[in-house]
Design goal:
Largest sheet: 2 strands, antiparallel
Number of helices: 4
Distance between the termini: 65 Å
Shape: elongated
Radius of gyration: 34 Å
Structural class: mainly alpha
Order of helices and strands: HHEHEHEE
Strand content: 5-15%
Length: about 150
């Protein structure tokens, strides 16, 4: 059983998938850091310092709380719509950043050169006019052509 598992785990597809998952996780950290540390500060500044993280509704009927942390410390049941909005904004920014990166990577990829199309005409040896390859007589000078 161990031998079968070893054969399964060492197959090319399994190893490729494992490497892809590991690189994907590392790439996710890079993109998250890019969004949190590079994109969000200027966007927050442009939006007038808007921070939705302390936007919440208290569902348990407990008194008003200044911050979400104070409500959680008091044991109040809260609906944290501000954190949800922050997560949605992060997702949109991350998705857009990935879209731009993939678009640039695809642009940089070398396009395969198309194979030249097979010729459909040849020149008549007598009048040098273009005629179909399968022609046995030239349509322009009516010369009889030798079979190639």
């Amino acid at each position: 059983m161990f031998k079968e598992f070893k054969e399964f785990a060492m197959k090319g597809n399994v190893m490729d998938m494992a490497i892809g998952i590991i690189i994907g996780a590392a790439f996710g950290k890079i993109v998250s850091s890019f969004v949190a540390d590079v994109l969000m500060p200027p966007l927050g500044l442009l939006m007038g310092g808007a921070d939705f993280s302390n936007k919440f509704l208290t569902l348990s009927g407990a008194g008003p709380f200044e911050t979400l942390e104070a409500a959680k410390n008091a044991g109040a049941v809260t609906m944290n719509y501000g954190l949800f909005l922050n997560t949605v904004i992060d997702f949109v920014i991350i998705a857009f950043a990935i879209f731009i990166m993939v678009k640039q990577i695809n642009r940089l990829k070398r396009k395969p050169e198309a194979a030249p199309a097979a010729p459909t005409t040849k020149d008549c040896p007598y009048c040098l006019s273009a005629i179909p390859i399968k022609a046995s007589r030239c349509a322009h000078c009516t010369s009889e052509l030798k079979a190639a």
